[in-house]
Design brief:
Elements: E1 21-24, H1 28-41, E2 45-49, H2 53-63, E3 67-68, H3 72-79, E4 84-87, H4 94-97, E5 106-110, H5 117-130, E6 133-137, H6 144-155, E7 161-169, H7 187-203, E8 208-214, E9 226-232, E10 238-244, E11 255-262, E12 265-270, E13 284-289, E14 295-296, H8 309-319, H9 330-348
Parallel strand pairs: 1-2, 1-4, 2-3, 4-5, 5-6, 7-10
Antiparallel strand pairs: 7-11, 8-9, 9-10, 11-12, 12-13, 13-14
Length: about 350
């Protein structure tokens, strides 16, 4: 590890006096990521509510939560603005839940921010009207590896940024997610949205986008499991994504990487969770200055679960006045939703015909 990389930021600082957390929606992501991440971050979950009472009861029992609320109204009546509301429900349900939170409450919503940009616009309006201190759980940008990349770019370690590439050639067992089968928007909306958001966190908004997302006969009834995206950042920065979830020829040539390259050096990010999903492999971060050698940068954690610590810590610190902005606040998250929408609009436009005469 070089002197340049040894102190790169990899973790979001903890709040000095954290508030308790109320879980709204006790599904798998809460069990698999939120609960263990909050325990590791030293954050206390005080209660849970879910439209499925048995599911909420099981979470409360398994984790020893002191409060099992029959509904959101009961949770709000008990906690008011004294808690942070962690909302992990299907995206279309957010517009029904947010109006019932206390004005000015601190809120973290599971991604995406609604089912599409139109719903994201409604969510943004509700948050503005109620003065909610609200963020969306786009947690990849909070992962140790991506926080380090953002820090490296800010410091100029890569020079002027010239290349951002995401390349996935993996096998994802889509049968684990049968609830996605009815959806008309799948791969970009639920998976590559993470990559688009992480790119935005580093490089900001592109001018425009070209995109195609395709069905694959090896993926059964799922609408799209392969994606190509070109991001237009003007004449210097090239942004692109090549995503294939259906590679069925073993581990040898599978890949799941980000490449960030500039005039002074490059970084490579391995997305370990994508390999042998859901078992995963270790995340990796590598740096090479121009003309130098590649150095692996030790990481303080991984996308799963450590990245889930950051969004909640940021919301808590912003609520307490310790952070001056929400890194994935609704205003910023709305822009990620706009980029996703632009990808789907691009899919509706015909490509330029080939002229051979």
């Amino acid at each position: 590890m070089t002197d340049l990389t040894k102190d790169l930021a990899q973790d979001w600082p903890a709040p000095a006096t954290p508030k308790p957390i109320v879980i709204v929606g006790a599904g798998g992501i809460i069990r698999d990521a939120h609960m263990p991440a909050y325990a590791k971050a030293g954050l206390t979950v005080t209660g849970v509510t879910d439209v499925d009472g048995a599911r909420a009861s099981a979470l409360a029992s398994d984790y020893g939560l002191p409060n099992l609320y029959p509904d959101l109204a009961a949770a709000v009546a008990d906690q008011g603005k004294g808690a942070v509301y962690d909302i992990a429900v299907p995206p279309h349900a957010l517009t029904d839940i947010l109006p019932h939170l206390p004005d000015g409450a601190a809120v973290l919503m599971q991604k995406p921010m609604g089912a599409d940009q139109a719903q994201a616009r409604q969510i943004r309006a509700i948050c503005r009207d109620k003065g909610l201190k609200a963020a969306v759980n786009f947690q990849l940008r909070f992962s140790p590896m991506m926080l380090a990349v953002q820090d490296a770019v800010r410091r100029g370690m890569l020079g002027e940024l010239l290349e951002i590439e995401v390349h996935l050639n993996i096998f994802t067992p889509w049968t684990l997610f049968p609830f996605l089968i009815p959806m008309q928007r799948v791969e970009i909306a639920v998976h590559s949205i993470h990559y688009l958001d992480a790119i935005r966190a580093v490089a900001g908004n592109p001018r425009g986008v070209f995109a195609r997302s395709l069905h694959d006969p090896r993926a059964g009834d799922f609408k799209q499991t392969r994606t190509s995206v070109i991001l237009d950042y003007g004449p210097k920065l090239r942004g692109l994504m090549s995503i294939n979830h259906n590679h069925q020829c073993g581990r040898k040539f599978q890949s799941a990487w980000f490449r960030f390259e500039g005039t002074a050096g490059a970084m490579m990010v391995k997305l370990g969770v994508c390999y042998d999903y859901p078992n995963g492999e270790a995340d990796e971060l590598w740096f090479c200055p121009n003309g130098g050698e590649w150095h692996q940068i030790p990481l303080s954690g991984s996308w799963f679960i450590e990245a889930f610590m950051g969004p909640m810590r940021n919301v808590q610190r912003f609520d307490a006045g310790e952070d001056d902005h929400l890194h994935s606040g609704v205003e910023d998250a709305y822009q990620t939703m706009a980029l996703v929408e632009a990808c789907f609009r691009a899919m509706e436009r015909p490509s330029e015909p080939l002229t051979l005469d």
